[in-house]
Amino acid sequence: MTRPHRRPDAGRPGRDRRARVLVPPPGARRTEGVRPTTAVVGGGVAGLAAATALAERGVAVTLYEREPFLGGRVGGWPVELADGARVTMSRGFHAFFRQYYNLRGLLRRGDPGLERLTGLPDYPLRHSNGLRDGFRHVPRTPPWSALGFVALSPSFRPGDLTRMNPVAALPLLDVRVPDVYERLDGVSAHDFLDAVRFPDSARHLAFEVFSRSFFADPRQLSAAEMVLMFHIYFLGSAEGLLFDVPDAPFPAALWDPLAGHLRGHGADIRTGTAVEHIAPSRDGGLEVTTAEEERRHDSVVLALDAAGLRSLIARSGRLGDGPWRERVARLRNAPPFLVTRLWLDRPVAPGRPAFLGTSGYESLDNISVLDRYEDEASRWAARSGGSVVELHAYALDPGACRETEQKRLIAQLHRAYPETAGATIVDVRHVWRSDCPLFPVGGYADRPTVRTPNPALVVAGDLVRTDLPVALMERAATTGFLAANALLECWGVRGQTLWTVPTRGRSPLLRALTHWSRRPTN
Known about the structure:
The protein is α+β, with helices and mostly antiparallel strands and 522 residues long. The chain has helices at 45-56, 101-107, 144-152, 160-163, 166-169, 179-184, 189-196, 200-212, 223-235, 250-264, 306-315, 322-329, 375-384, 402-416, 472-490, 508-517; strands at 3-6, 20-23, 37-41, 60-65, 76-80, 86-90, 96-97, 117-119, 125-127, 132-133, 243-246, 268-271, 275-280, 286-290, 294-297, 299-302, 337-344, 355-359, 366-369, 387-393, 425-433, 457-459, 498-500.
């Protein structure tokens, strides 16, 4: 079990001096003698993190990925446009926040200076009623970050703070894991904000940004997850809310260099290879079956999305015990989302930001102008005189007509950026997916943990329950490393050192106030 400590200044992965280091148990630097073997099932962020920590310490890793590319939900694949250009398509924009210490540590294996990440100057938010917010000028260190946001934000009007319920808002000030789940997992994000009486304008432009990052409607999302997000990005961390983005498509910027690092440590990467079945072997290992072969491994890391994990466990009837299998079977997916990417014959207006979070534009959640930061899109725009624009719509109705939703999303782009209404669409690609985990009200205790009933079998991914303040891509990377560490500990090998944002509220005064508010009354 790793233990949190206040980290030393030396080797800090970010600017926050209160970030926490989690030191793994002592052990050998590498495996000795016959190399243990591990199958990593899933080549997304979690699987790549697990494979990296294991391969670097001498474990013989075989990574199985169903798709022909690495990166999972942050992957990319080649497409040919109507004008003959060969470009890379993906599932859409991802923000690499400076709080993602473990994910960024993983990427440093292929890019030591993180030179392929470029910072965007702001995180702008815009409501259809004309209100605009951003975080460029907001202080990064709490509590000045919250005070600065309120002072600078036009979405906070005079008197809004006096109408809020300060007692209901106190959980935001001292977030601890798993305590936050014990207190708030039984409440929806929507109901929590109602109880706080957060002003509607700021609610749309601030809090719902966090809830919709989980691809879920706030009425379905656990308030604990939303409050944890607020701690990670805002009140608990001094890294701020500005973020980096890859300056090239995901494969070139992120995963091709990391794959080279893995192969340099002897890992066998098998893309386009789905695992069909896993069964315990008589000698304590695990038999992994694909369409091509059946192969024994000493251990297995399951780094799949919720649907993939449910399906594989259902096909592998001897894995785990009954209660564990039932918990996996109860995992739910978030509602479907849509990514629409447009190659336009003319540029968007010069003042448009590279990324814009939106609210009040029906299903439109954000707009990205890829040629403002991605080299491949920039080259296409320079050749064509056009622009590459991407739209996201989260938490859509599963029964909605796809063609209707696609048209509606583009119509909202025209409403937000009127100059695009007259542009000719050179090509358009729509990506529909419904494979992100849902974190429903009351669902925390039912989620799988890294460890399973079989010590040789571990689970990783953003769906995994962990007692650390991490979320989204950072949860995937962190649980991937934790899964590797659990196996390495069995072999007497020291695992990966991890970092997180502070594991409690930053202000002793505010912590005391929060503690006082929880005292039972007579």
